[in-house]
Amino acid sequence: MSSRTLKIAVIPGDSIGTKVIPIGVRYLKATTSVYSLSLEYYLKHKYDATHFGAMGMPNLVPDHVALWGSLLKFRREFDQYSSLRPYIDFWVVRENTEGEFGLIGGKIFEDTDREVVVQETIMTRVGADRRLKQLLKGDYSDLKIDKFHVDILTAWLVLRPEQFDVVVGSNLFGDILSDLGPACTGTVGIAPSANVNLEGKSLSPFEPGIPDLVGMIWAGHAQYNGCRQF
């Protein structure tokens, strides 16, 4: 078997991430003894993946610091154009860098009665094409595709989640649907998530602000069990 070295950047973040990530590091250390692997620490660039805990507790850290300064920044600068999230027996694939999160827009006359806010939705052919290429590798001649308006799709995900295998959505709609997906299991706190492109990945537990799950080892177990699929 050929050997391979993976460099993984570990970022605990906040909330449940500070509890899940240490468990994950312990998990990695344990695998070194079982599978004759070695584990060393590096303070260098050019990692193969990022093991990201969680980010997003606006009552403690403002969103412009926690999200725009880390999570959303990672997605854009590493061009992690696809967000993959497995739930029960289906996946939600979310466009990850365009849509309503395209950073086109702004506001003027802030905090006055003349305040104006403008936000644009960005959809590109490149963004759509690479999503299709990612999803349709191989022979899918028998693939069945259904189209839904997002409002009725949310209802079907609740009523009949078993009828879906893969759900693909834009950045905003994919964000909403990937919140709803793990809720079918009873909690959004244990689902794994991956932000990916062809060169690298960022793996994390899905929901950032779940303080009631802090310290529960099973949340960490579910994350790593799910992320093996990536």
TrEMBL record:
Keywords: Magnesium, Manganese, Metal-binding, NAD, Oxidoreductase. Its cofactor is Mg(2+); Mn(2+). The keyword Transcription regulation does not apply. GO terms for molecular function: magnesium ion binding; NAD binding; oxidoreductase activity, acting on the CH-OH group of donors, NAD or NADP as acceptor. Pfam families: Iso_dh. Residues 7-230 form the Isopropylmalate dehydrogenase-like domain. Transmembrane segments: none annotated. The keyword Zinc does not apply. Signal peptide: none annotated. PANTHER family: D-MALATE DEHYDROGENASE [DECARBOXYLATING]. Belongs to the isocitrate and isopropylmalate dehydrogenases family. This is Isocitrate/Isopropylmalate dehydrogenase-like protein. It comes from Lentithecium fluviatile CBS 122367.
